[in-house]
Fold each of these.
Amino acid sequence: MVTVGLVRLLVTGGAGFIGSHVTTALLAAGHHVGVLDVGHPAAHRRPLPSTVDGAEVQRADVRDATAVEAALNGVDAVVHQAAMVGMGVDLDDLPEYVGCNDLGTAVLLSAMARAGVGRLVLASSMVVYGEGAYACDAHGAVSPAPRTEADLAAGRFEPGCPQCGAPLVPGLVDEHARLEPRSVYAATKLAQEHLAAVWARQTGAAAVALRYHNVYGPGMPRDTPYSGVAAIFRSALAAGRAPRVFEDGGQRRDFVHVRDVAAANVAALDATATKGFRAYNVASGRPTTVGAMATALADAMGGPPPTVTGEYRAGDVRHVVASPRRAADELGFRAGVPLGEGIAEFVHAPLRA
Ligand code: UD1
C-alpha cells in the first residue's frame, strides 16, 4: 500500500448515512474535507446541517456543473458517495436513479477532468454482480439466470444450475466475477464504475471503486422504501412489531459496519496514488442470512421473533456474499467490527428520521 500525505478532499453525499461516517474518518485521518450534498428527499427528511463533524457542507446537486466546478477548487481528490440507493419503489424511480447516479457521476467526472483533479474513490455496490458465486456438483462454477416470477411465487427461492437444474452451493464472490446488474439501482452503480474506468483511462487518472456489501450502523435511514433491511427490522421491533423476513429467510448477505466502510474509504484514498481503475469488495467476510439477522436484532431488542412471510421483491438476488481478500491484500483493509458487537450498538444507536 502506498501512503500519501494530507489531501484536500471533496466528499459528495458527505451528509448522508455512509457519507457522514466517511467524512468523519477522513477528517480523523488528518485530511481536509469539504462536503457537497443535495439533501435528496429519499435520504434526508430534515434540512441539511451546515457542517459534518466540522467539514463545511455545500448544498448542491452533483448534476449542477457550475456548483461542482466551484466545489472542486483547490481539491486533490474526490470521494464520491452521492447516490440514490436501494430497490426504489417502482420503475417511476428509473429517471431519478439514472439522473442522480449516472448523470451526476458524468457531470462530476467531466468537471474533475477540466479542473485537473485526477483521484477518485467511488462508492459502488455488490449489486453489480447480480447473483453471487455458485457451484454445481456436476458442472462446477455456474451463473444462474435471474429467478422467475413463477419460481418465486411457488416458493422456489434457491436458483438452480442453468445446465441441469440441480441445487447449487453458494460461495464467495470475488472481483473477477461476471457483472450482471439485476435492478435499476444495480445498473446505475455498474454504469458509474464504467464511467469512472473510462475517465481514468482517458485522463491518466486513478479511480478506486468500493463495492459495499450490506452496510448497517448508526445513522442508517430509519424506514423508507430506500432503507436497508437492518434498519427496517429495527424500526419494526422498536414499534413492537415482528420483523417481516421475505422469502424463507435463508438468503445470504454480508452485513458490514458503516465504520468499517468508512475505514475502507480512507485506505482507498491512499490507493489513488496508482493510476488506472480498480474495484474492491468491502465486506466483513462473515456472511449471515437475513433470517439470522432478524433473529439477532429481535433477541437484542427483546422484541417479538421474526415472521417469515414468503414475500419477495422483483430484482432481489438470493445470495451475494463476498471475498474480502483483494481489499485486504492491496488496501490493507480488514473489517474490524464483529457482527454481534455491531448489532448490540445498532439497536440503541440513533437512526436517521
Ligand atoms: C443493499 C442496499 C443497497 C446496497 C447493497 C450493497 C438498501 C435498501 N439496499 O441491497 O443500496 O448497494 O445492499 O451494499 O439499502 N428484506 C426482508 N424484509 C424487508 C426488507 C428486505 O426480508 O422488510 C430482504 C430482501 O428481500 C433481501 C434482503 O432483505 O433479501 C436485503 O435487502 P436490502 O436491505 O434491501 O438490501 P440489498 O437488496 O441486499
Note: The CA atoms of residues 274 and 292 lie 40 Å apart.
Amino acid sequence: MIKTDICEALGIEYPIFQGGMAWLANASLAAAVSNAGGLGIIAAMNSNSEQLKVEIRKARELTDKPFAVNIMLMSPFAKEVAQTVIEEGIKVITTGAGSPSKYMAAWLEAGIKVIPVVPSTAIARKMERDGAFAVVAEGGESGGHVGELSTMALVPQVCDAVKIPVIAAGGIADGRGVAAAFSLGAQGVQLGTRFITAKECTVHQNYKDRVLNARDIDTVLTGKRLGHPVRSLKNRFTRGYLEKEYDSSYTNEQLEQLGVGKLRIAALDGDVVEGCVIAGQVASMIKCEQTCAEIITEIFAEAEKVLKDNLRWVK
Ligand code: TUI
C-alpha cells in the first residue's frame, strides 16, 4: 500500500489528483475519481458562478468523498467563482494559469486548503508564503497551458525550494511515472491525460479516440508568441495556428481569436479536426478505456512493484 501524509490531510486513500481539465473535468469524472479513492477535481474553467454551483451539487449527489475545485485564473469569472467555492463549502481548491494571491486570504479564512499549480520555484515559494497547503509542480509534458521546465527538472527543484508537500504533474500516466515522482521527492501525483479515456469521462468519443490512437510525437505547442503556450494533439487546427503564429502579418489579437471556443468544439461536439484536442505527451501510453477505479488501482499496484523492484540495484 502506498500512503503519504497528504492522504490523511485530504481524506483520500491514494495520493493522486485528477487534473482540472476544462470541458472534461466535470462532476461525473471528479466524483468517479473521488469514489475510487483519489482526489477528483471539478474544473471551474470559464464557468460562471451559477454553472459551477450546478456542477458542485451534481458531484455531491454522486459522491460523499472529498473533491476539489480548480480555479483557472485567466477566466473572466475567476473573481466570482473564487467566492462561490467559499459559499458552497468546498474544502480544497487548486488553481492554474496565474497567481491566486489576491484570493488566498479569503480562502484561508474559510478554512480551505489551497493547492496552486506552479511552473517554477519562485512561484512555489510565493505560494508557500501566502499560506498554500501544498503545490502541484507541473512540468511542460502536460497538456494545456504549460511552463518552461520539464517535470524531471521542476519537481526536485520545487521540493528543495519549499517545505509544504509537492504533488508532481506532467508526463505521468502509469505506476512507473508515480514511482519516479516519489523518487524526485513528490508526495503525490496529478494526472490529466490518463483520465481523458476514463469510462466516467463524458468527453466526446472522437476526443478519446484521438488520445487512444496518439503516437509519442503527436503533441505540439501553440501560442508561444502570446506568452501562454498550450500543448495539444497535432491536427488541422494546430497546423493552421502555427502557420499564422510565424506570420508577422497576423496580430496577437487575431491569434488570440483563433483559439477561442476551440477546446469546446473538440470536447463537446467531437470536432477533433478544427478543434483544440488538449492532451499531454503521455497520450500515446494510453491504450484502452477503463473506469477510474481500474486506472487508480492499476497505477498504484504498478508503482508499488516498481519501487520494490528498484531495490534490486541497491547493493
Ligand atoms: O493551467 C494549466 N493548464 C491549462 S489552463 C488552460 S485554459 C487556457 N487556455 C489558453 C491560454 C491559457 C489558458 C488550459 N490548460 N495548468 C496549470 C498551470 N499553471 N500551468 C502554468 C501555470 C501557471 C502559470 C503562471 C501558474 C502560475 C503562474 O503564475 C504567473 C504569475 O502571475 O505569477
Note: The chain has two domains: 5-203+288-313, 205-267.
